[in-house]
């Protein structure tokens, strides 16, 4: 995506000393904002809908949802790179496009994603959680953008914790849950009755994320000391579970074919 291109050009500029962006350009903001919310969240929305709704074809509301998210990111990138002084003026358009996308997702996909048996299949649990964090991460980020739009003099330091909470909601809440859901689906035939491990991975990771994000927003140190280790242990348990399933793969048919 264009967010990755911006990041790559930034590295080329830093390595070569060549000036590739105009003076005053917010290259980091353009790269980070578009990579997370017009790429990772966009892909997360699409993959969750694919696994949850299994819609044939291209529903019009779904196309509008994706186009709004993509266009909002493109607008944010262009303004950040070439007209940072217009962020306040055009920030409202970005907020509107992102709100259209997240509201459409919340109406079209979220109800089906959370209307599952949360005590049953771990795949459904991870998909439902990923869908919830799509909305949570986006709304937190839009709050940060709204603060910059409404008050251009606001200091980044005062919003840094909230922005990091949004990033963690996207990376752990959306992407990690989605990856675990897809990996569990692909290895479903090798399930070995490890439901305790599935619960541990899902619970530790997501409860830890909520606690850690709360700490970033309200700045309470003890919450970080609880949330960060919990997230890490949950991720490791989930990865170990997937690794054990893959290790149990029966490769004899593939070897025979080869």
Report what the structure shows.
The chain is 79% helix and 0% strand. The chain has helices at residues 2-16, 27-52, 60-82, 87-108, 110-114, 122-150, 160-186, 195-218, 221-247, 252-257. It is built from ten helices and no strands. The protein is mainly α and 258 residues long.
Tell me the layout of helices and strands:
Elements: H1 2-16, H2 27-52, H3 60-82, H4 87-108, H5 110-114, H6 122-150, H7 160-186, H8 195-218, H9 221-247, H10 252-257
Helix pairs in contact: 1-2, 2-3, 2-6, 2-7, 3-4, 4-6, 6-7, 6-8, 7-8, 7-9, 8-9
Keywords summarizing the entry:
258 residues, mainly alpha
User: What percentage of residues falls in helices of 4 or more residues?
Assistant: over 70%
Multimer state: single chain
Order of helices and strands: HHHHHHHHHH
**Strand tally, please?**
0
Structural class: mainly alpha
Strand content: under 5%
Poorly predicted runs are: none
Terminal residue distance:
36 Å
Figure out the total of helices.
Answer: 10
Radius of gyration over all CA atoms, rounded? 20 Å
Determine the mean pLDDT.
86
Shape: globular
Please describe the biggest sheet, giving its number of strands, its sense, and whether it closes into a barrel: none
């Amino acid at each position: 995506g264009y967010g990755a291109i911006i990041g790559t050009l930034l590295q080329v500029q830093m390595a070569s000393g060549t000036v590739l962006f105009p003076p005053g350009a917010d290259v980091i903001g353009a790269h980070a904002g578009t990579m997370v919310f017009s790429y990772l969240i966009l892909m997360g929305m699409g993959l969750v809908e694919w696994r949850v709704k299994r819609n044939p074809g291209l529903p019009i509301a779904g196309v509008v949802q994706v186009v709004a998210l993509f266009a909002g990111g493109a607008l944010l990138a262009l303004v950040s790179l070439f007209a940072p002084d217009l962020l306040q003026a055009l920030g409202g358009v970005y907020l509107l496009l992102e709100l259209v996308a997240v509201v459409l997702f919340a109406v079209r996909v979220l109800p089906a994603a959370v209307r599952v048996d949360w005590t049953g299949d771990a795949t459904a649990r991870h998909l439902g959680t990923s869908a919830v964090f799509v909305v949570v991460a986006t709304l937190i980020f839009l709050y940060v953008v709204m603060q910059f739009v409404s008050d251009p003099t606001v200091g980044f330091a005062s919003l840094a914790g909230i922005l990091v909470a949004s990033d963690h909601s996207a990376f752990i809440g959306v992407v990690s849950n989605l990856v675990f859901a897809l990996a569990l689906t692909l290895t479903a035939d090798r399930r070995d009755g490890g439901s305790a491990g599935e619960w541990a991975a899902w619970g530790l990771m997501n409860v830890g994320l909520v606690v850690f994000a709360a700490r970033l927003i309200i700045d309470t140190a003890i919450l970080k000391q609880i949330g960060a280790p919990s997230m890490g242990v949950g991720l490791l348990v989930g990865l170990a579970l997937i690794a054990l399933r893959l290790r149990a793969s029966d490769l004899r048919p593939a070897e025979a074919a080869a």
